[in-house]
Structures are given as C-alpha cells and as structure tokens.
Amino acid sequence: MDEMDEQVVEQNEQQTGIWKQMADGVSHRTVRNAWTFIRWIFFSCLIGVVVGVVGVGFHHAIAVVTEWRGEYPYILFGLPVIGLFIVWMYRACDMARDGGTNLVLISVRDNAPIRLRTAPLIIIATVLTHLFGGSSGREGAALQLGSSISASVGRLMRLDDKDERVFKMCGMAAGFSALFGTPLAAAVFAMEVVSVGVMYYAAMFPCLLASLVALMTARALGGVPEAFLVYGIPQLTPLALGQVIVLGLLCALVAVLFCKVFGIIQRLYARYLPHPYVRVFVGGCIVVVLTLLLGTRDYNGAGMQVIWRAFTGNAHPAAFLIKMVLTALTLGAGFKGGEIVPAFFVGSTFGCYYGGFLGLSGSFAAGVGMVAVFCGVTNCPLTSILLAYELFGGDGLLLFALGCAVSYMFSGYSGLYSAQKIMYSKLRPEFIARQSGE
C-alpha cells in the first residue's frame, strides 16, 4: 500500500507540474498578446493622427492649386521650367534615384530604408506638378509620405525589423485613407499590394486602426471623403452577369494597355533623353503642346471633374486613351504624382462610353470600369471590391465584384509597380513568385 500511495502522490505531482507549466505558458502568451495589442493601439493612433494631418493638408493644397490653375490657365507654360526645379530639388536632397511607390513596396517587403525627406519632397513636387498642369494623380504621394513618416517614427521608437514593416504598412493605409476617405480599402491595399496572394494578416488590426484614425483626423480638419452617385444599376440577372463579364474583360485589356503605354514611354525617354534635366524639360514641352492641340484642360492635373461627368453618363470616346498617354508622358519625364487617380479616370471614362454598347447605363458602367481597371493595374482584387463598396455604396456590389474578378483574371501579370510580387498564378492554384510586368 505504501508503494501504491507513493506512486499516486508522484503522479499527482507530475500532473500538477504539467498543469502549472501550461498555466504559465497561457499566462505568458496572454500577457504578450495584451502588450502587443496595447502597443499597436498606441502606434496606430499616433501614425493615424500624424499622417492624417499631413494628408489632409496635402489634399487641401492640391485643391487650392487646381483652382488656381483654372483661374490662370497660362500657368501651363511654366511646366517645363518647374520640371527642372523638381529634378534639381531631388538631386540636391540626394534623392536623384528615388524609386517612388516601388521604393515603398520594397521597403515593406525587404525592410529597405526609406528617408523622412521623402515626405516633404513628394508633397512639394506633386503640388507643383498639379499647379502647372502635369497629368498625374495624388495617391503616390499619399503612400510615400505615409510610409516615410511611419518609418521615421518607427526608428525613433526603436521597433524591430518585423514591427517596422507593419508600421510602414500602417503609414501607407493612413495616407490612402486620409486622401480618399476609404479606410477599408486603404487598410487592405497596404496588406495586399506588396506581395499579391500573400497578405500580412498580422498587420490587419494596426492598419485598420491607423486608417480609421487618419480618416477621423481628416474629417475633423475639413477633409471630405470621395463618393460617387451611381444610377442605372441593373438587377442580378443572367443578362446583367454577361454584360458585366464582357465589360470586365474589356477593362482588363485597357489595364494591360495602360501598363504597356507607361513602359513604352519610359523606355523611349531613357533611350532618347537619358539626361534627367533634358528629359523633364522636353517632356514638359510635349505635355504643353498636346494640351494646346487638344483645346481643353480636362486632362491636366488629376481630372476629377471628368470622372464626375462620367458618372452622369458623359464621356468622350478617346478620353481614356488621351489620359493614359498624357499621364505616362508626365510621370515618365520626372514629374511627380501617382497613377491611381489616372487609372480611375481611364476606367470610368472607358466604362461610361463603351459600356453603353453592351446595354449598360453610362453611370453604372463608369463605376464598373473604374474599379475593374484599378484592379487590373494594381493586381489588388480585394481592395477593388472594398473600394467599390466605399465609393458607390452597397447597391450592385455583387456586379462590381464580378467585374473586378474578371479584370484580375485576364489582366495577366502586368502592373504599374515593377517591385510588386505576384505570388500565385491567376489561372490555377500554383506558386509562381514573379515580379509584376515580367
């Protein structure tokens, strides 16, 4: 009996030790998770406020210079000269080889350094590009200023390698959200665009929180989220499915053309105008001459007024092609801005005009075109669907999502960002890990 009692006592002690180890492990994980949660609340709110303030200031600056450009149209003739200043400014700040949005993607994926000076440089250069009539967007500046500010704050906070990457994504999401007022799309875009097919889900909470805080900050400072009124949304019928599938396929081809035009013009610049000062001056002159030949200023700046008209059912049949060429000429020459708003312009005008041949209303087709072309050039289908929800509301979301899915599938591996990696095939569950555009 004594031996049996000793064995029972020994087994009880072993079980007690096992339970104690498990409890200690659970307690340790709980404390660690709670600390991580609290830490990301602080960091995300901090970067959301900082980037939100800078972002809304940038948004107001773009609005002001756009109004000035309309009041003083002759300012267009200063575009070539201001291009020389932009190139000089970047070279003087030791940023002559600035990689733009591609640098942001590399910075997140490989934790490459990104300098704080990127933020003021991209803001000044983008504002000047818009003021003097260059054809460009503004989200490239938002992504760059957000990531550069967050990277600098992360270094001050002495974050480790992995946390710093997440912090940069928070900055990207906050910058996108502050400018467009689409927090869900902004948060997912920051996680999705770097390596398509492999999302950094660990960044979901901090990115979403930073995005929401940036949106609230922007609203408090007078920022107005983008939204479009879409009418003529068809019922979910076999006919509507077929119409949207065809339009999505056409938008995929437009997205491929968009990327090809950018690549061709960049190669032509590099071959015939290799010197940056000569390239930006000649490129500025080309944009001025083409603007005068067109007889309209619709294609200068971001062109938001044309996008708004597309949602009322009015678009020129060649507007999408003119915008992509002028934007490629502007950004390829060395001016600054972004490609996403031009992609919105291209998609909405193309959808508005050519969707009518499929029997769709111009307004609804403009919405499908906008998000489908965006999806094709960025390779971000989830972001595109959320963008449709936040810009257009819930009506017709299933059809918008279908258009995005078709565009993603048929746009191949083209993309605006050469640093982007597409991890899985678009046609079958197969790991490919190829660079966008290869």
Quickly give the structural class: mainly alpha
Question: What gyration radius follows from the Cα positions, in whole Å?
Answer: 25 Å
Helix percentage range: over 70%
The CATH topology of the largest domain turns out to be Clc chloride channel
Number of helices: 16
Tell me what the CATH architecture of the largest domain is.
Orthogonal Bundle
Task: Please describe the biggest sheet, giving its number of strands, its sense, and whether it closes into a barrel.
Answer: 3 strands, mixed
Instruction: Detail the poorly predicted runs.
Output: none
Our measurement of the CA-to-CA distance between the termini, rounded to an integer number of angstroms, reads: 78 Å
| Total beta strand runs | 3
- What overall geometry do the principal axes of the alpha carbons give? globular
**Beta strand %:** under 5%
CATH homologous superfamily identity of the largest domain: Clc chloride channel
In total, the number of domains comes to 2
Identify the CATH class of the largest domain.
Answer: Mainly Alpha
Strand order of the largest sheet: 1-2-3
Mean pLDDT value: 88
Give a quick set of tags describing it:
3% strand; three-stranded mixed β-sheet; Clc chloride channel; 438 residues; 3 strands; transmembrane helix
Write structural notes for this entry.
By secondary structure, the chain is mostly helical. The protein has two domains: 33-221, Orthogonal Bundle (Clc chloride channel), CATH 1.10.3080; 238-435, Clc chloride channel (Orthogonal Bundle), CATH 1.10.3080. 70% of the residues lie in helices and 3% in strands. The chain has 16 helices and three strands. It has a three-stranded mixed sheet, with no helix packed on it. A hairpin with a 6-residue loop joins strand 2 and strand 3 (431-435). Helix 4 (118-131) runs antiparallel to helix 5 (139-156), helix 9 (238-272) packs parallel to helix 12 and helix 12 runs antiparallel to helix 13. The longest helix has 70 residues, at 2-71. It is globular. The model has no long low-confidence stretch (mean pLDDT 88).
